[in-house]
């Protein structure tokens, strides 16, 4: 049976997830997908190359000052060009079958919400949408009939192993964490690391910010809150276990004692392809796991003294309300400060805790401007 082509927009096309998404599209059958919008920010040359190669209808940079550069880079084509935050939101609101939401940080929230309001499939890599605005985001998905498919590898794994099972039978979910580059380091040594060392993830090739978040385990902290919203879990149903090989992407415990897991090589093209082709599974030429060569799969409890981010996430899960938005906004500001060399690696968790103390009990933000407001206040407290 010949199927209609699916139209796809990629928000954050020039980033790690965006590039992998276009790579996956390149492996699908000819004519299976058409590209509507590609958005980026600073990397104009790559955005223009991608738009030409994949015959996008529109290319948008979030940086208003780069309009002319992008226009010039796409001269001689019929590809529309636009620039600025609102242009990204407008491009995201064009109706498509699938939107890959892969802008980094809370900057991805407004464009992804715009895509949600069109219905269709939202392939969600941007975990911050759920961390900062879980209830708002899910309400909008329901109101507009959007299908939310998680791309974050752990949540995609859980989504896959929940499929076809009774939710009432779920005891807990177990998020796996690599432990990052400092898994075995002493705390004193962690105090002096640079952004370059922190960005060297042992298993995954990812953007700068999520790589450093993996090193501080703030990535796992965000993922705990992401899981709470996505799978409607109580705080005590969310477990974290360190698994240094990143082969088991996460697990679900059922009430009969069974544990179901999803495994695969650490390659984001697998969850990306799952979301793009759902509910089918298309062939994908990625590495196959060779179980005879896998020496061992290890598991260990996270050390919450060296990685206080995990305890901060537990606190946010328990407090609810605006705590997710505060944790994320404070973390983004602290991370920017660490990358710029203004604060140390261990200072990040201290700054986040201070913001959570100061803004404890703030009401849950249920509109975009309320989320952005609480995010701004958290950043002001951190002021790195
Ligand atoms: N990378 C991975 O393997 C995984 C990523 N994720 C999540 O996916 C999201 C993307 O991650 P990743 O691809 O690593 O990030 P990258 O930093 O590699 O890419 C981010 C993308 O967002 C664009 N961008 C940056 N700032 C803005 C802004 N203010 N407005 C609009 N666009 C902007 C960038 O444009 P430009 O580069 O042109 O400046 C780029 O296209 C994050 O939320 C991350 O947590 C989740 C699981 C795995
Ligand atoms: C690939 C992916 O989903 C990342 O979020 C990954 O999980 C990061 O690894 P950590 O487990 O080290 O945070
Ligand atoms: Mn993840």
Number of domains: 2
Largest sheet: 7 strands, parallel
> Which CATH architecture of the largest domain would you pick?
3-Layer(aba) Sandwich
What Rg is obtained from the alpha carbons, in whole angstroms? 20 Å
Binding site for 1-deoxy-D-xylulose 5-phosphate: 127, 153-154, 178, 201, 214, 219-220, 223
Keywords: Isomerase, Isoprene biosynthesis, Magnesium, Manganese, Metal-binding, NADP, Oxidoreductase
Function: Catalyzes the NADPH-dependent rearrangement and reduction of 1-deoxy-D-xylulose-5-phosphate (DXP) to 2-C-methyl-D-erythritol 4-phosphate (MEP).
Domain DXP reductoisomerase C-terminal: 263-380
Would you kindly provide a brief summary of this structure?
By secondary structure, this protein is α/β, with parallel strands linked by helices. The chain is built from 16 helices and 11 strands.
Name the features.
384 residues, alpha/beta, 2 domains, 16 helices, 11 strands, binds NADPH dihydro-nicotinamide-adenine-dinucleotide phosphate, binds 1-deoxy-D-xylulose-5-phosphate, binds manganese (II) ion
What does this structure look like?
The protein has 384 residues and is α/β, with parallel strands linked by helices. It has 2 domains: 6-150, Rossmann fold, CATH 3.40.50; 155-265 and 296-319, no CATH class. Helix content is 43%, strand content 15%. The protein is built from 16 helices and 11 strands. The protein has helices at 16-26, 44-53, 67-73, 85-92, 109-116, 128-144, 153-162, 187-190, 195-198, 208-216, 218-230, 269-277, 309-319, 323-339, 347-358, 368-382; strands at residues 6-11, 33-40, 58-61, 80-83, 98-101, 121-124, 147-150, 170-177, 238-242, 248-254, 259-263. The strands form 2 sheets. Strands 4-3-2-1-5-6-7 form a 7-stranded parallel β-sheet, with helices on both faces. It has a 4-stranded mixed β-sheet with strand order 9-8-10-11, with helices on one face. β5, α5 (109-116) and β6 (121-124) form a beta-alpha-beta unit. α5 packs parallel to α6, α6 (128-144) crosses α14 (323-339) and α15 packs across α16. The longest helix is centred in the middle third of the chain and has 17 residues, at 128-144. Residues 152-154, 177-178, 180, 204, 210, 214, 219-220, 268 line the site of 1-deoxy-D-xylulose-5-phosphate. Its EC number is 1.1.1.267. Mn(2+) binds at residues 152, 154, 223. This is 1-deoxy-D-xylulose 5-phosphate reductoisomerase. It catalyses: 2-C-methyl-D-erythritol 4-phosphate + NADP(+) = 1-deoxy-D-xylulose 5-phosphate + NADPH + H(+). Residues 148-231 form the 1-deoxy-D-xylulose 5-phosphate reductoisomerase C-terminal domain.
